[in-house]
Amino acid sequence: xxxxxxxxxxxxxxxxxxxxxxxxxxxxxxRPALVDGVTGQQISYAQLDGxxxxxxxxxxxxxxxxxxxxxxxxxxxxxxxxxFYGATRAGATVTTVNALYTANELHKQLVDxxxxxxxxxxxxxxxxxxxxxGTGVQEILVCDTAEGxxxxxxxxxxxxxxxxVDIDPANxxxxxxxSSGTTGAAKGVMLTHRNIATNITQAEPMISLSDGxxxxxxxxxxxxxxxxxxxxLPLRLGLTVVVxxxxxxxxxxxxxxxxxxTRAFVAPPIVLALAKHPAVDGVDLSALKxxxxxxxxxxxxxxxxxxxxxxxxxxLQAYGMTELSPGTHSVPQDDxxxxxGAVGKLFPSTEMRLVGADGNDVPAGEVGEVWIxxxxxMKGYLGRPEETAATxxxxxxxxxxxxxxxDERGYLYIVDRVKELIKYHGYQVPPAELEAVLLTDxxxxxxxxxxxxxxxxxxxxxxxxxxxxxxxxxxDVIEYVAERVAPYKKIRQVEFIxxxxxxxxxxxxxxxxxxxxxxxx
Length: 521
Prior knowledge:
Layout: E1 3-4, H1 17-22, H2 25-28, E2 32-36, E3 42-44, H3 45-61, E4 69-73, H4 80-89, E5 93-97, H5 103-113, E6 117-120, H6 125-131, E7 139-142, E8 150-151, H7 152-155, E9 173-175, E10 189-192, H8 193-203, E11 214-217, H9 224-236, E12 240-243, H10 249-258, E13 263-266, H11 268-276, E14 290-293, H12 300-310, E15 316-320, E16 327-330, E17 345-346, E18 351-355, E19 368-373, E20 380-381, H13 385-391, E21 398-406, E22 412-417, E23 422-424, E24 427-429, H14 431-438, E25 444-454, E26 457-466, H15 474-482, E27 493-496, H16 510-518
Parallel strand pairs: 2-12, 4-5, 4-6, 6-7, 7-8, 11-12, 11-13, 13-14, 14-15, 26-27
Antiparallel strand pairs: 1-18, 2-3, 9-10, 10-20, 15-16, 16-17, 18-19, 19-21, 21-22, 23-24, 25-26
């Protein structure tokens, strides 16, 4: 059965992303668009629009033409959006690079994306210079200053005319993020101007941003979640985005207070900190009205604990994936009683199916793989037609690999990833379910679960980060979980670690834990 959104369809936004976002920038004028949360430096809407146009002219002078690719390898800065929109104005595709990448990982992306320019910051130059060897990158630019390197600031002085580029929003790729690689090699996800521009309009009825709101950009712009909800969406609506380069809890809390942040889009690790960390006590967060979590599963009890501590009616959730530009679901903020653990309702102009292993739709209320169809579905994986065909079927359905169910109110619940299910004696054990149980233990700061081989069977193993100063044994953890789950779901092994490996989006990197296990064999 095809499930349709209860919201009216939206108009397909067939315009370049820079026009979709900055089309009213001059109207917003001197209103602060971006604020540096560390220094307080601001960029107004009029300035952002002008900067993106001059940067586009500068890129054109450097030989960038329609269809070229520019790699943007940087943490969040207030210059990042100007570079991004300047590149798209010049007709280029922006491949956004994980700020935590090694030189080898960056090199692979530069080669795969065929990037001609690399824009970074001076701090990242050692990695950047090593990575460009043997690639098609013709020059490295920096967003700040570094001797021997051209600065993006120099492009602002360009007197060349703004390039006139004939962009086809339906087919031209605006942004080329790379999938996180939690289940395999990272792949370039081709998102067109139409994909990401329309996804903004799909999000607007679900995420009702009000005039005058102030958002904190702690999630990375290089990740599609941050790019959409902390850059494209609020800047399209004339709001103020306060930018931080990385997550530091104390700095995050200070900025929430001092900048009177009204809304925070976060990932589950930040919800965990807000719910449990003692540093939250005594900080004035009265301006904060909404917290939305996405990018990874969030347990309903943890969300409730965070909401109660912050005095919010709920911590909202949203769902999507890079291949979906990224949004498909969100908990409507006007729902006064959203169900615990739900990731939301379908975005407008979006269809969904829940499909069983036999390829047929599952009965109402049962679990199936989430399939999505809509204008936000990616163009495909760059240079990987077979993998594209395996993900998007001939009828346009994108097979997410996520298992979910829908309740009678139309809310989606994500159970787990198809590829990450643990098969214990024929039973399917979702790691996310066990992680949610572990995080209800006040002695545990963080946890992750994978399946490991033991005497010919796959068994659940927990990697646990104890709370500081707490004595915790393997038996304690096993007993705690055993009291709360069916016998076949019990944790069978425990390892204590300093930190759970996670992508910048907050998603648990189970492949790193599996590699850790494989190294012992």
